[in-house]
Amino acid sequence: MTSSSILATSQVAKRFGSVVALRSVDLTVGRGEVHALLGANGAGKSTLVKILSGVLQADEGQITLHGRNLRLRNPAEAQEAGLATVFQDPALIPDLTVSENFRLTDVSEQEVVEWLERMQMSGVDFDQQIRDLPLPTLRLIDLARALTREPAILMLDEITAALPADQAEQVFGVMDEWRDKGRSVLFITHRLGEVMRMCDRATVLRDGRNVATFVPREMGEAGLVEAMLGEAAQGPTTVQTAVAKGPVALETRQLRSGDRLKGVSLELHAGEVLGIAALEGQGQDRLFALLAGDRPPDSGEILVAGDPLLAQSPYDAVRRGMVLIPSDRLQALLPQRSIRENLATPLYRRVGQWWGLAADEDDRVRSAIDRLSIDTRAGRQAGRLSGGNQQKVVVGRWLAAGFRVLLCFDPTRGIDVRTKQQIYELLRELAAGGAAVLLYTSELAEIPLVCDRVLVLYDGQVVGRQAAHEATEESLLTAAHGLSSEDVA
Amino acid sequence: MTDALLGPEPTGRPTWGMWVSDHPQLVLGSVLVLLVVVTGIIEPRYLTFSGLRNTVLLAAPLGIMAGAQTILMLTGGIDLSVGMIATAAAYVAANQSPSGAAIAITAGLLVGVAAGTVNGIGVGLFRVNPLIMTLAMSAILLGLFTALSFTVLQGSTTVGRLISTLGGGSFLGNRIPYNALVWGGVSLLVIYGLRRTGLGRLLYAVGDNPTAVRLAGVRLWQVHLAAYAIAGLLAALAGILLAGRTGAVDLQLGVNFVLPSVAAAVIGGTSIFGGIGTYSGTIFGALILGVLATMMTFLDAGQAIQQIVYGSILLGLAWLYARVTSSS
């Protein structure tokens, strides 16, 4: 690209205690450019964005903006300088309403509404508490808020993770608009299709260094993956195999809950991975909450291995071997504790297990770490691990404890190709070992790769059932919009 | 694009804060030795067995009460009723002393467990904020025992010989106080319990992220209940030792220990937000406060000055820990 440079970093380095997050990064973002920042989990992408947002301060190196040296001591200075960021986790206070959050950050509600409407998001109730709004809505609110500041550089840290396809399109529209205005976007994503389609240039980070900068369209997807992983690798491959079905491990009969679920019946066999495909907000959150024992259904039945489950709390579901990997990994992580303590927590769920440590704790923890190849270098505090490694820890605690039915809610959100592939393979391996897996994923392309069958959920009802190997992204998307029902299968 | 390209790690200077956070016990130990030396300079007689013995004698009940506080702070809770629980236990133990030491001690400890259990039910089952719950418990106990001291508990307000010896006596030629032995035993149990039992793991885990613990299939109320009951037991034990040291009980016996018990835990590096801390740190915290109290006595500083010093030290350390944790 011939565009002149607007933002540049030179030899930026950052370490956390003994863990080096960034060794030395040189990044140049041009004017009127959508620039992708790529890299495997733990490569340092989020750290770099936090430094450019003033949240963290670099230990070494320089940042220049418009050719001038820039020292960012706090987020306010970054905003002042024209750098606005939408973080992986929405920067909104959960206990306050949307309006209160805006007042706190001195943002005009009217302008946010205008931006939201342009992104086809009208009708958000600003008097609702942040905690009651779904994550995709929060992401777009956060984006709209950043846009009202008219930043010269918009930084989007995995904004499309967990966004359904239609809302991701709206974000792409904004990115195009920013380029057309002669401004710039720094875009972090793990979805290579988005990079090929949206980005003018891409910089790849690996182990805290920039290892390549190029034009994605000239490089091809395979080239991107190779640059990120530092080795020849192929994209996600099918891991789904036909396995002899075991007995029914989980059955629901006409589950109803408020206006979210309107009679959902499903059967999940041991040895099977059952996919749930749905656009955002079709009742999948509630379905998983009921199954995990987080709340009781209004009516209907849940049967685990043939016996009804009447859950007061997750304790009852876990006791019967039905365990949850939640959408937000931070809900299942002990950030200040070690990897070992994280993995071993479910081993002490009954009072009878409180009096000592499990004799096989070592073996269980070790085998979970090995099986998931968890990087234990920052093992003293799970919060210091990269996102992908945190996700592995969250999965790992159930490997250590054992289970019958695994409920996975969007387990590959915001993690890199290699880790994704590991998780796909793991899910298949678990199924082959006799476990039953229920998988909701916001990435429809994953379903044919991993699942045996898929149910399409629309408006709280099952509107389609397909064999996964016959399903395509289009057929699922059509069904997920409620456009056709049984005829898709 | 080989790994050789990645080169050495940046030479980020290891900061003072990093060193402190990696070696908390060493730093606390140094502070303690420094304070002992300074006190020795102020009053040379302090650097003898009997001088140091007095500090331990002072610190032991505080250290045990601070153990209760540490356990609860790890879960993200706090216990403002430790002082009144200690007083109540001492009262009951004194009252039962005519029936023999064993019965007296057991009765006292049971009072502590009962009060702690009620705290735990409030916090764990009814989700009452720990500050409110234990503040209320403290007020209720004060009222209850004020009333009882005129009626049911009218009898003995002095403790028997065994309790006096345990709380105030020494052995090996008046060198080592018995209450230090009790404290040592309690310390071993608490340290072992926190490090090497499932409950210990859960206490840290609940303070770090209760949602994650709940999703792991743990019933949180059980953990809270256990934590507050154990805290009640420790507070009661501290109260009985205190009564043994003073020889007689009154309703003011434990009240002045509430803030120092929190302070000892905080000085020892326990986070009031839960999930981080060790009892060995708290032991140092209690000893440091014990030496400080002795130093104040030698300097002839009144209660007012002591309180100001406590407050300043707490603030300073809170500031230091905040700096250390945010920079690492």
What does this structure look like?
The complex is a heterodimer of chains A (489) and B (328). Chain A contains 16 helices and 20 strands. Chain A is an alpha/beta fold and 489 residues long. Chain A has two domains: 5-229, Rossmann fold (3-Layer(aba) Sandwich); 248-488, 3-Layer(aba) Sandwich (Rossmann fold), CATH 3.40.50.300. In chain A, the strands form four sheets. Chain A has a six-stranded mixed beta sheet with strand order 6-7-8-3-9-10, sandwiched between helices. Chain A has a six-stranded mixed beta sheet with strand order 16-17-18-13-19-20, sandwiched between helices. Residues 485-489 of chain A have low confidence and may be disordered. Chain B has one domain (49-322): Orthogonal Bundle (ABC transporter involved in vitamin B12 uptake, BtuC). Chain B has helices at 16-22, 24-42, 49-74, 82-96, 101-124, 130-148, 161-168, 178-196, 198-208, 210-215, 220-246, 258-267, 279-298, 303-327, and strands spanning 170-171, 176-177. A two-stranded antiparallel ribbon of chain B has the order 1-2. The radius of gyration of chain B is 21 Å and the shape is globular.
- What characteristic shape of chain A results from the CA principal axes? globular
Shape of chain B: globular
The value of Rg of chain A in angstroms is 23 Å
Number of domains of chain A: 2
Proportion of β residues of chain A?
Answer: 25-35%
Q: Major sheet of chain B, described briefly?
A: 2 strands, antiparallel
State mean pLDDT of chain A (0 to 100 scale): 87
Largest sheet of chain A: 6 strands, mixed
The largest contact between protein chains, plus residue counts on each side, is:
A-B, 51 and 35 residues
Task: Please tally the β strands of chain B and state the result.
Answer: 2
* Helical content band of chain A: 25-40%
